[in-house]
Amino acid sequence: MADPRVLVVAVLVASLIPICANGQDSSVRSPESTWVQGADYRLHANVFTGDKVSEQPVLLVVLHGDQPRNPSCPTKECGEPDYQDAFAAKGAAGRDVIAVGLLRPGYTDPRGNTSDGVRGETTGDNYNTRNTDAIAAAIVELKRRYHSRQVVIAGHSGGAAIAANILARHSNLIDAALLVSCPCDVEKWREHMFQRTQYSGFLRPVDTLSPIDLIDGLSKQVAVTMMVGSEDTIAPPSLSESYQAKAVKLGKRVRLVRVDGKEHDIFLDAAVFAELARVLK
After folding, report:
1. What is the mean pLDDT of the chain?
2. How many domains does the structure of the chain reveal?
3. What integer pLDDT is reported at residue 141 of this predicted model?
4. Domain range spanning residue 72?
5. Measured between alpha carbons, how far is 136 from 217 in angstroms, rounded to an integer?
6. Cα–Cα distance between 162 and 125 in angstroms, integer?
7. Is the pLDDT assigned to residue 215 strictly greater than 50?
8. Which residues does 187 contact at the CB level (< 8 Å), separation at least 6?
9. Beta partners for residue 176, in sequence order
10. How many Å apart are CA 265 and CA 198, to the nearest integer?
11. What sign does the CA torsion over 215, 217, 220, 222 have?
12. DSSP category for residue 47
């Protein structure tokens, strides 16, 4: 019988890894590789600056998904995230925006940069208080460093869950958010993933935060756009729908966009960038 850990990774990798955009927009400067202190974690970031940036730009912070390692793949690209950088570059292009592809705690990128912290098993165990607050503290530092007048956060999959946690725990930090393919009810997502993979790691207790349980802390001033593919079998639409329904009932500004015919890996999809353009207006 195949090792269930290999099975879960194979299933997740197939659905979680968007393909990076080739090349770079000429209206975006070459990225700056830098480090930012987030509480007691030192996190790596790639910073993209558009050619129209002012002295007080919008700060766009981009969080990648869980992207589990694939033990059968011989190259780092199978498990080391960099698509947050492709998203950030696109977000900065032609705008008064400084966009930051932030490497989540415990992750290594294809160039060998590793953020402090514990990556975990990609079973929802990385969405904990320490990681959430470390990323929030890093955003505070980035906002100070770049004299930002406004902060927008965009996250995919597990990155969307952490972004939603930040919105609730640090309600005055973020002005607008784009949450894509979010496992926003972590308990139900873990149950779903166990049924899908039969990997026992999804049954083990984890120290985690679930966005749907934190909605009360979400500011009524922050504008949140959620997006989910209608055919997403990793973070099914019902998880985004239940989060949005609860949020709206509590008077929060959360809208949901369903992308017909699309699966989980939609972060670099044209429909997502169209919504990003609306958020950044």
Report:
1. 89
2. 1
3. 98
4. 4-20+31-279
5. 15
6. 11
7. yes
8. 210
9. 152, 223
10. 22
11. negative
12. E
Give strand pairing partners of 62. 101, 154
Q: Is the dihedral of CA 133, 134, 137, 142 positive or negative?
A: negative
> Which uninterrupted H or E stretch holds 130?
helix 129-145
Question: Rounded to an integer, what distance in angstroms lies between the CA atom of residue 155 and that of residue 64?
Answer: 6
DSSP for 233-245, written as a single string: SSS-HHHHHHHHH
181 CA to centre of own chain:
9
Cβ-contact 154, 61 below 8 angstroms = yes
Structural domain contains residue 248: yes
Q: Count each helix (H run) and each strand (E run) in the chain, helices first.
A: 7, 8
Q: Are strands 150-156 and 41-49 parallel, antiparallel or unpaired?
A: unpaired
- Note the pTM of the prediction, 2 decimals: 0.89
| Residues whose CB falls within 8 Å of the CB of residue 162, separated by 6 or more in sequence, listed in order | 63, 104, 126, 127, 131, 132, 135, 155
Q: What per-residue confidence (pLDDT) applies to 281? A: 83
Decide if pLDDT at 18 tops 80.
no
How far apart are alpha carbons 150 and 167 in whole angstroms? Answer: 14
Tokens of 269: 């999809």
Residue 122: give its domain's CATH number. 3.40.50.1820
Is 218 within the bounds of a domain? yes
Strand-strand pairing, 41-49 and 176-180:
unpaired
Read off φ and ψ for residue 48, nearest 5 degrees: -115, 130
| Sequence letter at residue 114 | T
Residue 25 in domain: no
* Separation CA 281–CA 277 (nearest Å): 6
Output the six-digit token pair for 146. Answer: 């770049």
* Cα angle 149, 60, 17; round to 5: 175
Asked whether residue 26 is domain-assigned, the answer is no
Instruction: Give all strands (DSSP E) within 57-136, no chain letters.
Output: 58-63, 97-102
* Between 259 and 2, the higher pLDDT residue: 259
